[in-house]
Amino acid sequence: MLITKGYVMxxxxxxxxxxxxxxxxxxxxxxxxxxxxxxAYEINKEEILNGLxxxxxxxxxxxxxxxxxxxxAVCERNKANGLRGGRPKPTTTQSVIYEPSQTQVxxxxxxxxxxxxxxxxxxxxxxxxxxxxxxxxxxxINKEAFNEWVKYKKxxxxxxxxxxxxxxxxxxxxxxQQIVDTSIMNNxxxxxxxxxxxxxxxQSFRQQDKQISRxxxxxxxxxxxxxxxxxxxxEVEVITHES
Length: 243
What we know:
This protein has helices spanning 28-42, 52-83, 107-135, 143-153, 158-168, 173-185, 205-222. By secondary structure, it is mostly helical.
């Protein structure tokens, strides 16, 4: 028996679940004898078992001996530490109050601002690369006018950039600049075709008929005639259409 006298008695011990499978083969009386023997051995008392029960108890006894060896080692280590004055005390360091200089009033904020600036620069580089790639697809674009509009609108999405290129590419360079200047000066949300190039709404057939009649009358008058020179009512052929 491994005696642990001289050491503080443990308050618990381990029993592995798989070691208790043997209980399935024992009667209730035999299981009771086994647990009493385990308890006795844990508190440094002699176990009283014979024959088969003593053989069954042997694995539990060996497990208890290993646990006691580990427990004694821990006790000895703690005892040695106590003789040396216990655990080493943490080294105390003098606290220093750091006061940032005038140029570093808020260094943490300054670092965050630097990170934000880096992110903005990165996004700007990505957008410029996208624009340059799309510009290569259009040969007749007024780049100065286009870049001015993109900068004004702060476009980043490739879809908006493509639509702008498609619209401006329909006009010559001078007209493109006029379109952009007009939209910026009037704070328009988008680009619009020049007013002089907008198609006039088509006249109705009735309006065309009236205009033809006026033109014929003007032709007679321009020839030196007067409507009073005719004894009969003046007739003008009028072509009519059903509107």
